Amino acid sequence: MLRFASLGSGSKGNGTLVEGGGTCVLIDCGFSVRETERRLARLGRHPGDISAILVTHEHGDHLRGALPLARKHRLPVMMTPGTARGARLGAGEGLISIRPQQAFKVGDLQVMPVAVPHDAGEPVQFTVAFGGRKLGVLTDLGSITDTVVQHFDGCDGLLLEANHDVQMLYTGRYPPSLKQRVGGNWGHLNNGQAADLLSRIERRKIQALVLGHISQQNNTPQRVADAVAPWVEGMEKVIYACQDEGFSWQQIY
User: What CATH number did the domain enclosing 214 receive?
Assistant: First the structure.
């Protein structure tokens, strides 16, 4: 069995736990050490249960707590060289380097880092496989590429970004430069783009779909639900992740 849960999903902090066999990894850690420990406890986990921290990119809502947590609990941290450069991290940090489209193992889990278009040094998102099941964690990208479709097709579980509603973003309070960044090809997926990805991948296997990284200023869960409705009909479980609570453990059998 493969399962996943979220410490929180949004611009104030992100973290996703993935477990399979005897292995648990934390994808991103955008919270302080104390807050991360609190949120792990809420999910019945301790930092000592984590086999590795996998970092998608260097933005603070994904990286902020990763190294402090790793130092305190002696955890390996894995990221691309471009992410390390973007975060101005040196060799003395003891990082493990990973490369896009080059699979690796962490304990019982098979991990594939997938290159995505985002305004960061060398960003990736991840698929994680165990026991014949595959989970996709796909947030923080501004457009859907053929590489993304290829690697996130056939997932049994999927955490997918639906960051903003286009109308809300462009009529909202963000300054023009931020609107352009968020809504551009290297920013974040809007609701329509999330729906478009769902239309392009095999959905029949998906046991749990989580729509995440939903903007608190430029989106609502209802707008996300309306956008993806044609593509989630009959799906076993559809969840809308929030910043404060994330989501509880979801099982993939």
Answer: 3.60.15.10
Our separate counts of H helices and E strands in the chain read 9, 14
Amino acid (one-letter) located at 122: E
70-120 residue pLDDT tens? 999 999 999 999 999 999 998 777 899 999 999 999 999 999 999 999 999
Residue 9 amino acid letter: S
Rounded-to-integer distance, Cα 198 and Cα 187, Å: 19
Phi, psi torsion values for 100, nearest 5 degrees: -55, 140
Q: Is the pTM of this model over 0.85?
A: yes
How many Å apart are CA 102 and CA 62, to the nearest integer? 21
Domain assignment of residue 67, given as a range? 2-245
Number of structural domains found in the chain: 1
CB 160 within 8 A of CB 139: yes
Q: Torsions phi, psi of 243, nearest 5?
A: -65, -45
Q: For the sheet with 2-8, list strands across it.
A: 96-97, 77-79, 52-54, 23-27, 15-20, 2-8, 247-252
